[in-house]
Amino acid sequence: MRICLALLLLGWFPAAALAQHQDLNAFVRSIEIGINAGDGDAIDSQMLLDTLLNRSLRSMRPKNSEERITLNSMRNGMRSKFRLGGEIAGALQGQLPWNGAYYPIRTYETGGVPHAVFGLFSVEGGINYHDFELVRLPEGYRILDCYVYATGELMSETLRGVLQQIAPAGMSSIDDPDKGAALNIAQMRSLTQAGDYEGALARFDALPPDWKRNKAIRILAMKSAIELSDTLYLRHMQEYEQMFPGDPSLPLIQIDQFLYMEQYAQVNASIDTLDARLGGDPALDMMRGFISIIEGDRERSYGYFRRLQQVRPDFLPVYPMLLNQCELDLDVQTAVSLLTQLNQRPDMGRDALEDLMASFPVLAETPEYEAWYQKAR
Questions:
Q1: Helices and strands (H, E) in the chain, number of each type
Q2: For the residues of 18-79, what is the DSSP string, one character each?
Q3: 109 strand-pairing partners
Q4: Which has the minimum average pLDDT: 67-71, 201-205, 272-276?
């Protein structure tokens, strides 16, 4: 026992386990760097797309050569269009580095399967999370699937829903009476996008009971319900929570909806719940800080932003919030300290810092900032 304890205290790991840990960290880091640089292939080139499509197509039952040709056509179409990494990188493209970030939260293993969880933060688009299911191959780690918090389902399940809607009758497990359910789901999406929320919920009510237990469909129904009444929305939310207790997507949904309803105590409670289920995400202090600003508590918001910067100094979107506080307080010393940290980053160009300081003219005109600027690289 004492030998084992001593080895743990010394940080000893078996060589194979240590190498595997290092490989996973390198894989995660490559995704972070690539996506933030606008390279969607950092994810897309690592996905085992055929495995993902096999999961999505497993309910398809082609009965003849014509249906097999159709199935192959559907597969090829999905293969050519699927660009998860491209979509994520695209969401950050065109934004200054201060307005968005894609960042790792943690890695873990369940049932022998490694996972990596990433957060997507955007000033314009809010927050989302991706839990990647991984496999370790001789050539390195690859992505099998991805649980998307905003949709409440695996990417393979989302693709399956799309494929089931376009599959010929008889090929899919949802043909005959259930084919009508798939059509109603498609109509729900169209009606929601068109703003016909009553029509979307009418389609939801017409779905078979089994389909009403689909998380993505429930989320779609909640988006319509909140537009009609708080009472209706809360009923749908309670039903969702009862059907999927402890589901990781629930607090993320609640943050958005409670914010819309201006129920800030519930927003903060949902942020805390999400934080706990993620195993800790310091970047959620951005949300806490925003809520504090809305509530008029500037000092508390600054505390959240400062805590985030100390824990995650690489999280760039927090710096404008801190510099804004410095400008309000005319705290040039802290501002120069923050700028010095940014200037030490190898990926931080002078132009980016100048663009940042253009938003803070009071600080930019001080002698202290001018002296720092002349010394900066």
A1: 20, 5
A2: HHHHHHHHHHHHHHHHHHHTT-THHHHTTB-HHHHHHHHHTT----SHHHHHHHHHHHHHHH
A3: 114
A4: 67-71
Sheet holding 113-122, edge to edge: 100-110, 113-122, 126-137, 140-148, 153-154
Ranges of beta strands (E only) in 215-316 are none
Half-sphere exposure of 312 (CA within 13 A, CB side): 20
Residue 173 CB: number of other CB atoms within 10 A? 13
pLDDT tens for 63-95 read 777 777 777 777 777 777 788 899 888 888 766
Token pair 């105590």 is found at 265
Outline where 137-176 has alpha helix (H): 155-166
* CA 99 – CA 236 distance, rounded (Å): 33
pTM of the model: 0.81
Residue type for position 339: L
The DSSP string of 88-140 is HHHHHTTS-TTSEEEEEEEEEEETTEEEEEEEEEETTTEEEEEEEEEEEETTE
Specify the amino acid at residue 303.
G
Residue with tokens 């933060």: 121
The pLDDT of 106-115, averaged and rounded, is 93
CB contact set of 144 (below 8 Å; sequence gap of 6+):
48, 51, 52, 133, 134, 135
Q: Please tell me the number of Cα atoms within 13 Å of 98 on its side-chain side.
A: 17
CA distance linking residue 195 with residue 191, whole number of Å:
6
